[in-house]
Amino acid sequence: MASSAATTVATYLAELPAERRAVVRAVRTAVRRAMPAGYKEGMGYGMITWTVPHRILPDTYNDQPLCYVALAAQKNYYALYLMGPYGNAALMKELRAGYKAAGIRLDMGKSCLRFKALDGIALDVVARVIAGVPMARFVDAYHASRRR
């Protein structure tokens, strides 16, 4: 599944084959536990997303809620989009170091962390990085990026 038309997380999960659903559920549970207060879980861009609600940040570059984290079961891998480290060198350094310490190869593009199974993601490291960006700081970083 590259993208989903599901409008709810429950529907998205139900669309997945059982084995893939188990992986997405495990990662989703870790993300939810680590998520700082205020971010809203939902569906966007065909993925499970955690966003800054429009009531907090109504004016975004694309008129969509500002995405902080997204999770998807892609065709050949799983993807966890981490916008916190993408815009923060210190968090990216922490993520790289955590993966190295865990002995797991970090397969990451700009914000997209790719993995093929649960043993390919350092959930404790990812959780620390996600927990490290309170919503107010993420919104401030967004505003600063738009001023540039």
Strand order of the largest sheet: 1-2-3-4-5
In round numbers, the mean pLDDT is 93
What is the CA-atom radius of gyration, in angstroms?
A: 15 Å
The H-and-E topology, N to C, reads as HHEEEEHHEHH
The count of helical stretches stands at 6
Helix content: 40-55%
Cα-to-Cα separation, first versus last residue: 36 Å
Give the second-level CATH assignment, the architecture.
Alpha-Beta Complex
Shape: globular
Oligomerization category of the chains in this entry: single chain
Give the number of domains.
1
Summarize the structure.
The chain has one domain (about 10-145): Alpha-Beta Complex (Aspartate Aminotransferase, domain 1). Helix content is about 45%, strand content about 20%. It contains six helices and five strands, in the order ααββββααβαα.
Q: Can you give a write-up of this model?
A:
The chain is α+β, with helices and mostly antiparallel strands and 148 residues long. It has a single domain (9-147), classed as Alpha-Beta Complex (Aspartate Aminotransferase, domain 1), CATH 3.90.1150. It is built from six helices and five strands. It has a five-stranded antiparallel β-sheet. β3 (66-73) and β4 form a beta hairpin. α2 (18-34) runs parallel beside α5. The termini are far apart. The mean pLDDT is 93.
What does the secondary structure layout of this molecule look like, with pairings?
Layout: H1 9-15, H2 18-34, E1 40-44, E2 47-52, E3 66-73, E4 78-82, H3 83-86, H4 89-102, E5 112-115, H5 123-131, H6 135-147
